[in-house]
Amino acid sequence: MSDYLEVSEEMLWPKAAKSVIKTGPDREVVAVYPYRSACPKAVWGELIDRAKDEILFAGYTNYFVFLEQPHFHRTLQEKIGQGVRVRFLLGDPESEVTRSREQIEDVALSVSMRIRIALENLAKVQVAEGLEVRYSAAEDATNHVGLSVFRFDEDALVCPHLARLVGHDSPMMHLRKRDESGMFDRFAEHAEELWSRAIPAR
Question: For the chain, what is the HEC assignment?
Answer without folding.
Answer: CHHHHCCCHHHHCCHHHCCCCCCCHHHHEEEEECCHHHCCHHHHHHHHHHCCCEEEEECCCCCHHHHHCCCHHHHHHHHHHCCCEEEEEECCCCCHHHHHHHHHHCCCCCHHHHHHHHHHHHCCCCCCCCEEEEECCHHHHHHHHCEEEEEECCEEEEEECCCCCCHHHCCEEEEECCCCCCHHHHHHHHHHHHHHHCEECC
